[in-house]
Design brief:
Blueprint lengths: L7 E3 L5 E4 L1 E6 L2 E6 L5 H16 L5 E6 L2 H4 L8 E5 L56 H8 L14 H4 L4
Antiparallel strand pairs: 1-2, 3-4, 4-6, 5-6
Amino acid sequence: MLRNKRLLDINVDESVRSWRAAAWTAGGTAAIILRDSNDASARRIVEHLISEVSKDPKYGVERVYRKPEISELQGFSNADFVLALKPGFKFGRKLHGPVLVPRTGGTHGYLPVVEDMDAAFFIVGPGITRGRSLGRIHMRDVAPTLASILSIELPRAEGRDVLSMLRGTNQ
């Protein structure tokens, strides 16, 4: 779609010749990046395109994020827009071809607000309370939790040790 609006120029071998706007797709989301955030013309074209696809149910757009909302997503830091799709929809990854592709099997890239995409986290072992629910945890909590059990340090890891609440500490 960006190519059709002359915001993205592709060579025959699918390499990018030039661009004013590009999409980084990740399954259920796509980050739209303007080469120059001050390019008012490109911004208007992208805004219009986003408005069109958001209104058409065949694209399955659940929500459009704009700056500064994007920083709250904890990803896509250089994006000017983020499109989040409804479950059952998936962005294509090729520069030629359909924007959406059939979703077969699982996929990733849906935002954490889509609870249907939650995964189960089970952990058993010495010192771990049996049958205790940790509630909804973030995937970034898994590594610090396992590191704590193994008594290893992960100083740059994001997240928290979710078992610390069972031990009465606030790590």
